[in-house]
Write a structure and sequence with these properties.
The complex is a heterodimer of chains A (299) and B (224).
Chain A lengths: L3 E12 L2 E11 L3 E5 L6 H8 L7 E6 L2 E2 L4 H5 L2 E5 L10 H11 L5 H10 L13 H13 L5 E5 L7 H14 L6 E6 L2 H7 L2 E6 L2 E7 H7 L1 E6 L12 E7 L2 E6 L5 H8 L3 E7 L2 H18 L1
Parallel strand pairs in A: 3-8, 3-9, 6-7, 7-8
Antiparallel strand pairs in A: 1-2, 1-4, 4-5, 9-10, 11-13, 11-14, 12-13
Helix pairs in contact in A: 5-6
Chain B lengths: L1 H34 L4 H32 L3 H5 L5 H33 L7 H26 L2 H24 L1 H4 L11 H26 L6
The chains are: A alpha/beta (299), B mainly alpha (224).
């Protein structure tokens, strides 16, 4: 059996105004992959393709070792999928939905479902139309988690939630991940959520994957250097520096492959390194997207 | 395993739509009760009401059972279950057709029994009744097929308007058809070639609509 929970190889999908371009994505078993991208970047299209809901024009998709969409039925027994645009039946109660899912999945874990009801502060006998947005998201997650899937695919699950509801959901997802056999693909444009729970991170923009790697390595690689430059001198771009902003004698260089030697290299040009700062995932995300778009324009 | 999931989906549709089905059966039953009154007005009102209940059910069911599932964004929830898009379409076609045929069949049997048991109603009317029973069935299939294939409320409404306009015209031409009209007062049902041709045409239309729907659904590549 492959050690990959998800494998997309050269996947392409063309719509009249959007193209998903040669997507290569791998999620190893037991890992949480955060898929980050701005609105319209292609996160949902990628997820729909890997769930077999949309058929790719080209490329191979394997989920839990199954070819998609051809083997989607076998694959979906072990996948828990929730998306931001997913709605339950408004006129029915949460208990009705729980019965419905239980009648399909033999793995339905009733005690765990009851535990989640308590943790999420939900009442099974309440109709879905009477629930707040946060409660609806929690209800959907309850239905997904209590079937004990091997792979969780969550498309923007925390969008539109208040901080308390977001915290509760992320806490539960983190708890779920103590089971090391379980894999997660988690898409969001909220970098804080992704930073909190992901092992690996993939950035997607305008239908292309612009970077994909281990979260810690990511955060370690990116730095912001604040420099003081002798007047009249333009700061040179060193290898690993993807952007320089200079205003008079003050300059900020952004590195995507930081090495301590960079500071010495800049000192040797006459510039003075005032500080070397770590960057948040959000800052890295924005810098990465801007850099990718500049390269696209340049090409 | 998959057939069990399809059964569960069909059962789910029944649970979601049963109130509507029961209301339409009750309305049809009430219309048949009116036919029992010995008055020409009651007979006319009952007849019209009876067919209206079938037509309304045939118009509303495809929207509530098919279009609303997409419109209210329940489809991603269903498509996350271990079924393929084609199996979802099969379950939807089966449940929508079954949910219509159940009250339609019950009302057709009840109406036929009533007419056959009433001595004052000429039995020559029976073939015409069956032709008229078939029209809401054909209309329902067309509306349901449009709803399934287009997944659009707008197209479903357009098909409903088309069918509802067509019923009146069809009634007019069928009742005025001399080959049918001449046997209406016969003491026994007369299954003339004209009657059989129309009934066969209705059955063929149902089969064609369902076949084309199945074919188009099986070729779809995107479902959400």
């Amino acid at each position: 059996m492959s050690d990959l929970a998800i494998e997309l190889d050269g996947v392409e999908k063309t719509y009249p105004f959007f193209t998903l371009d040669r997507i290569h994505l791998q999620v190893p078993h037991g890992q949480i992959m955060g898929l980050i991208g701005p609105n319209g970047a292609g996160k949902s299209t990628t997820i729909r393709i890997l769930m077999g809901l949309v058929q790719q024009d080209r490329g191979e998709v394997r989920v839990l070792g199954r070819r998609m969409p051809a083997e989607q039925i076998a694959a979906k027994w072990d996948i828990g999928f929730a998306s931001e645009d997913m709605r339950l039946y408004e006129g029915m109660t949460l208990a009705w939905h729980m019965d419905f899912i239980r009648s399909i999945y033999p793995n339905w874990d009733a005690p765990y479902a009851q535990l989640l009801l308590k943790r999420f502060g939900l009442r099974a006998e309440q109709k879905i139309k009477g629930l707040s947005h946060g409660q609806r998201v929690k209800a959907t997650l309850l239905l997904v988690l209590a079937r004990r899937p091997r792979l969780l695919v969550l498309d923007e699950p925390t969008t539109g939630l208040d901080p308390v509801a977001r915290h509760e959901i992320l806490k539960e997802l983190t708890a779920v991940m103590t089971d090391e056999g379980r894999s997660v693909l988690f898409s969001s444009h909220n970098t804080q959520d992704v930073e909190q729970i992901s092992d690996r991170i993939t950035f997607i923009d305008r239908g292309r994957i612009i970077d994909s790697m281990d979260k810690e390595a990511y955060l370690d690689r990116w730095r912001r250097l604040r420099l003081e430059v002798p007047s009249g001198m333009a700061l040179p771009a060193l290898p690993g520096i993807i952007g320089i902003r200079q205003d008079g004698r003050l300059a900020v260089a952004t590195a995507n492959a930081f090495a301590p030697e960079m500071a010495n290299a800049y000192e040797s040009t006459g510039a003075r390194v005032k500080s070397i700062e770590t960057m948040t995932l959000e800052e890295i995300f924005v810098a990465n997207v801007e850099h990718s778009r500049e390269q696209e324009v340049g090409a | 395993m998959t057939s069990r999931v399809i059964q569960t989906l069909i059962l789910k549709d029944w649970r979601l739509q049963r109130t509507q089905i029961l209301i339409s059966v009750a309305a049809g039953g009430l219309a048949l009760a009116l036919l029992q009154l010995k008055s020409e007005t009651a007979f006319l009102v009952g007849t019209v009401w009876f067919f209206v209940s079938l037509i309304v059910l045939g118009s509303m069911l495809p929207v509530s059972n098919v279009v609303n599932e997409r419109k209210k964004q329940n489809l991603p929830f269903l498509m996350s279950l271990p079924i393929s898009a084609l199996q979802y379409a099969i379950s939807k076609m089966a449940s929508t057709l079954g949910l219509f045929l159940l009250p339609w069949g019950a009302l057709v049997i009840a109406a036929s029994t009533l007419v056959m048991s009433r001595g004052d109603i000429p039995k020559g009317i029976v073939p015409l009744m069956f032709i008229l029973f078939g029209l809401p069935l054909v209309g329902f299939c067309l509306i349901a097929a449009t709803a399934l294939v287009s997944e659009s409320e707008g197209w479903a409404i357009a098909a409903t308007i088309l069918c509802n306009s067509w019923y009146g015209l069809a009634w007019y031409f069928i009742i005025r058809n001399p080959a049918i009209n001449r046997d209406l007062n016969s003491p026994v049902p007369v299954w003339s070639p004209a009657v059989l041709t129309i009934l066969t045409g209705e059955a063929a239309a149902v089969a064609l609509i369902l076949g084309v729907t199945f074919y188009l659904q099986s070729r779809k590549r995107e479902f959400v």
